[in-house]
Automatic annotation (TrEMBL):
<dbReference type="Pfam" id="PF00857">
    <property type="entry name" value="Isochorismatase"/>
</dbReference>
<feature type="domain" description="Isochorismatase-like">
    <location>
        <begin position="10"/>
        <end position="178"/>
    </location>
</feature>
<keyword id="KW-0378">Hydrolase</keyword>
<dbReference type="InterPro" id="IPR000868">
    <property type="entry name" value="Isochorismatase-like_dom"/>
</dbReference>
<dbReference type="InterPro" id="IPR036380">
    <property type="entry name" value="Isochorismatase-like_sf"/>
</dbReference>
<protein>
    <submittedName>
        <fullName>Isochorismatase family protein</fullName>
    </submittedName>
</protein>
<dbReference type="InterPro" id="IPR050272">
    <property type="entry name" value="Isochorismatase-like_hydrls"/>
</dbReference>
Amino acid sequence: MALTTLDPKTALIVVDLQKGIIGAPFIGSITPVIDRSVALLREFRKRNLPVVLVNAAGGAPGRTEQPRRHTEPLPAGFTEFIPEVDQRPTDIVVTKRSWGAFATTDLDSRLKSLDVTQVVIIGVATGTGVEATARQAYEAGFNVALAVDAMMDTRPEAHEYSIRNIFPRLGETATTEDIINELAKRDL
């Protein structure tokens, strides 16, 4: 874990903690990920730092070798955030139709208009939505931090590969506790 600091204007990006995805067959219990996400949401909101809630409402077009999921109309409530997220009027809500939260949205310009220079990314799935969002944030010039204990995947190999091989090249990895401790330094 290599978190060195958090920029004064850091945003929390919560990827796909929504009703239509949270019931997926994750590699472990999703409950600790939700609990850690709630803790981070609480700390960012307490300090009036931007919170971005991302939901998926479909996927990018194009052929793939593997069957595409969610190509039919989405069931009612699919994109609604789980209750634990406790969506607030001050949250930035981004609905994506690709793996990453930046590619098909105005998230980059919205964060830059708030003078955000760093993002902390959490959510599901580690090897798709979280990783794609981290790649896009890095490419857009944001400092990236990833709370690796506040993310989960349905594929163990994807989860581990992203954490060990991809994330250290895109930013700094940390635990939820590391990030909360770094935020607490601002209160001294």
